[in-house]
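[recover] target loaded
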């Protein structure tokens, strides 16, 4: 016998269980009488195959994530770009000092310094939603860059 709760959980009872016992157990589960969600008096465990529905993200979480993604995009295009230029110059200077200028090691030094400079000037989102949105923007920008490089005609916004 199964009893499905309003929140989606399903409680299983042995066949022939007195309806009063089922009702009392449901009341205890809903009223917090059980020690944990999966611990019901009498050793009866809920069917875990049907989990309660996931909590919807609040408007505030979405708005905060969008704000963080916008800040990441804006700082990446401004201070992040400047940091990349400054990092590249520093990396080239370092490769000259090290005597690796014009070699693969010199290129690696300049590239590492450029990446670090760009990252230092770009806001990194702290929330999961902000990270998700910033990642989506990055993927979209990368796809657009690939199209331009491959010679596809530019997209038009209607």
């Amino acid at each position: 016998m199964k009893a499905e709760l309003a929140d989606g959980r399903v409680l299983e009872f042995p066949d022939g269980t007195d309806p009063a016992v089922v009702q009392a157990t449901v009341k205890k589960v809903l009223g917090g009488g059980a020690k944990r969600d999966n611990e019901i008096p009498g050793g009866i465990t809920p069917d875990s195959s049907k989990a309660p529905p996931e909590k919807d993200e609040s408007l505030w979480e979405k708005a905060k994530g969008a704000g963080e993604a916008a800040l990441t995009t804006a700082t990446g295009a401004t201070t992040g770009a400047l940091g990349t230029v400054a990092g590249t110059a520093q990396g080239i200077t370092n490769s000259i000092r090290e005597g690796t200028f014009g070699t693969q090691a010199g290129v690696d030094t300049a590239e590492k310094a450029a990446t670090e400079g760009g990252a230092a000037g770009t806001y990194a989102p702290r929330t999961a939603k902000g990270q998700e949105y910033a990642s989506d923007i990055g993927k979209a920008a990368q796809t657009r860059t690939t199209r331009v490089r491959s010679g596809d005609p530019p997209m038009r916004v209607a």
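[recover] notes: The longest helix spans residues 128-149.
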